[in-house]
Design brief:
Chain lengths: 288, 122
Amino acid sequence: MSALPMADAKAATVTRFRVAVYESTGAEPLDAGVRGDLVAALLAKGYAVTVVRPGATLARFTAGTLVVLGRFTEAKPLEAADGPVAIHFRDVATLTAAQAVEVVDGLRGGEALTKPGAWKPWFPVIDYDRCTNCMQCLSFCLFDVYAVSADKKIQVQNQTKCKTDCPACSRVCPEVAILFPKYRHGPINGDVIGADDVRREVMKVDISALLGGDIYQALRDRSAKSKSRFAKERDEDRALEERQKCLVALGKSLEIPPEVFASLPSIDEIRTKADQAAARATAALADR
Amino acid sequence: MTTPLDVIAPRVLYCHCAYAAVVPKATKEAVLRGLTDAGVAFDAVPDLCELSARRDPVLGDLTGDGPTKLVACYPRAVKWLFHAAGVELSQNIEVLNMRTDTPDAILADVLGTPRPLVEVTA
């Protein structure tokens, strides 16, 4: 295992917090049902859990807070709170699973842990075995999810800006290199890419080329033509209707949730973002 | 102490995929219950995707020491989720897929006889 360069400093702000259900030396084993209920309850509250059994060791834990729950038969070891690892031991012999979780919640206290379930972890993941660094995803996404790394590679930088349940960028990727692990169907969910998927991608026309080199420039041109035509026709209702039809068709073909359209930036912001994305993509590609 | 021929009892890391309904609830619950009933040592995390998104160092801690059977979803997704978090999975990580495999098959693999190591395949 080796560490990779991080896209940003998020890891530095993550608080390590783990719960060990301890059933080894110096403690009695829990009943299977109690163990099951306890582990399930801890997971439901968003805690990482390690079940420690005789002969097994705790996975590496070098910094943060470790809460050790068990039916201790020997004097509990001294708690440590001043080193890189703060260890707290709590006897759960007389507690229900829910009560044990409350104990853990109390020890967690004010530590800045993510509230479980506050955000559905929906975001693109790049398969770098397939990615050709073409930057189409960077140009396509309007929500600043993608960025270019210092070594000019495309990367997912702002996962939380991704629109939940929208897999549109994966559909414009010509290499099937963008995954959404929580998507329903393959290969976008990470399933093995079959011959049919590859064939479909071969047939997929480069969206940039299709639109004359720049998707947003093409949209601007189209918008300008429309404005001209609509000005002549003086029929704003008809214009709106046509645009809505286009959006509905686009949404269906790319499986974009309606909420995404509702949260699109203004036209001016889109123009600015498109120009910025195009500049970043051009710069990255030029340096390759 | 290990047995000859690189046959090592692997660690088990289970993902509860808590924040989406893509892994069948019955499968998750049956696998988790099977692990706790069997009385084996294992690690469990609420949701690998969430940990990956915030580049939680727990991902490196839980997969850094020896062979691991990782019970989650598609191997290709798991591999690149870890990569996105700054952790490269080593060659002795085996990914078991709760989206496609039955609880019985997964538990038989996890709780069965230790076997020679296999590579992560995408």
